[in-house]
Amino acid sequence: MFQGKWRLWKLSISILVFLTAYNIYLTVRLMYSSTCVQTSPDSVLEASLKIEPPECAHNQNFPVTNTNNAPKPLLTSKSNKTLETLTNIYRNLQLNQQYSLNLNLGLGRSDNKLAYKLFDNIIVGERYIELTEAYKTSLAAQSSLDKIASLIESSLYWGGPISLAVFAGTEKELNHLLLYILYLRKCNTRIKEKVSFHLAIPKEKGPKTYVIDEERLEKMDCGNPMGVLHGLLKELTKRGIHAWKYKIPYPQNLLRNLARKNCHTKFLFLTDVDIIPSRGMAEHLNAFLESEKCDGKCAYVVPTYELDERVLFPPNKTDLIRMANKGLARPFHHKVFIYNQYATNFSRWQNYTDPDDKVRISHPVTNFEFLYEPFYIATDSVPPHDERFIGYGYTRNSQVYEMYVAGYEFFVLSPIFTCHWGLQVKKSRPPWREHQNNQNRKQFDHFKKEIFARYNKDPLNMMAGKT
Predict the structure, then answer these.
(1) Which pLDDT band holds residue 201 (cuts at 50, 70, 90)?
(2) Which residues, in sequence order, are CB contacts of 357 under 8 Å at separation 6+?
């Protein structure tokens, strides 16, 4: 029996020695493989990444002075491609673990037209689930890199959960977008706690991988968020952000659907990231929605104003009206396109006397007309935003039009409101927006026929002539 145990022990030692020698062999083989010999000027961002790929993990300081005399690679081109794929996966896994990223660009889900890849909850706020349980309404918004800094102010005034869908058209833009999101989370506790981020990218020619410049992230000044953002935007293209938007139209409605479908409260406040809610709105809505019982299909409109950039954000309705009387605030899009918000009836809202700070219905919308596109609160049972409308024009108003045909009623709330910075004029609009608007106008001719066929109703006589 003793001899049997001795033989078993010798066999175990032999296996251990063999495995150790084999591991050493693999390590040396990987050290001298061609995949570690790369310092391409085309991958500056990759060079700044501190995390090494797995095949170079034991070779971080290996000197490569003369690549012509380097040993021949032991791996085939097919093997190199496989290792490159594994390297990207490894790198992304390390990034995900360090920055709480849930993002693998090889996965995701497709939209209905197979044109985009969608990624849910790539970064989740630390208190997002808790806030979802405490509040009745989620703020659902969408943004690209150039507008996302508005999230700082929105998260200051909105106490509930925020679901934000973002878009990146190119790999460089995705790198910058993720970098700025991580910067916001690093510098702003409210964003880190409240916001759940979702991502959409083009499916065919969109980003295939991403890297995060950790050194740059560490050096970004928390006291200068707009300066940091402007620096990133300048790097996207020599001709500026507008040229990029013309080349890759922004899929607003796709992003709106992505944001709202990732909310978990009963009610949604569907908005854009640069539409800033008034202070305490989420808390006031909790009390209102607790007592308000809608028997049918209801949407609660929140009046939206433009603000002169020289003023401070109004703390209440009284101050907002005072600014409006001085010409420092006015209804959203009043000069650019008055029908955008006209049916809200701002005069009636301003003249409504609020007995206290509690949210109430000021009045119903009685003069609904085509192209009305209010920001409203409703359940997610409202019709989805039609994703054929890409870019600008006929995006929100097409969805609101379908709501009206489907029998939804609109009620204006007071004293809450939202604001957009800047008094807008037509000449400030870039030409590419009008081009996209014309393209979507053609799409709407088909859309209105489908709505008529779906509901067998035409309350605005849209079928009688062209829009």
Answers:
(1) very high
(2) 284, 316, 415
